[in-house]
Design goal:
This protein is mainly alpha-helical and 94 residues long. It has a domain of 38 residues. It is 78% helix and 0% strand. Helix 1 runs antiparallel to helix 2. The model has no long low-confidence stretch (mean pLDDT 81).
């Protein structure tokens, strides 16, 4: 029998995951564009303090991505069902 409540929850969870992934990707693109402009401005101004700020922002972004990568890998592993056991080999007629 179909468990509609369970199906609804699964669909909502999947929709949330897809939405979260899209938000992450779009946010990353926006962040990279902002960093690119910040770096170009710092180079044009020959401003070592501004260059250091860009480097700090890049380092922070890398740390956040690494943590997200770790969290995502753990979530996928925790929520992936175990593979079914392999079927025994077919016996050959003798």
């Amino acid at each position: 029998m179909l468990n509609v409540a369970s199906l609804t929850t699964s669909v909502a969870n999947n929709t949330s995951v897809v939405g979260s992934a899209l938000t992450l990707i779009q946010g990353f693109a926006t962040s990279q564009a902002a960093l690119s402009k910040q770096l170009a401005d710092a180079i044009a101004a020959n401003d070592p303090v501004a260059l250091a700020a860009v480097q700090d922002a890049i380092d922070s972004g890398v740390a956040q991505l690494n943590q997200s990568d770790t969290d995502l890998a753990a979530a996928v592993a925790a929520n992936t069902p175990a593979a079914p056991p392999a079927a025994p080999p077919a016996s050959s007629p003798v």
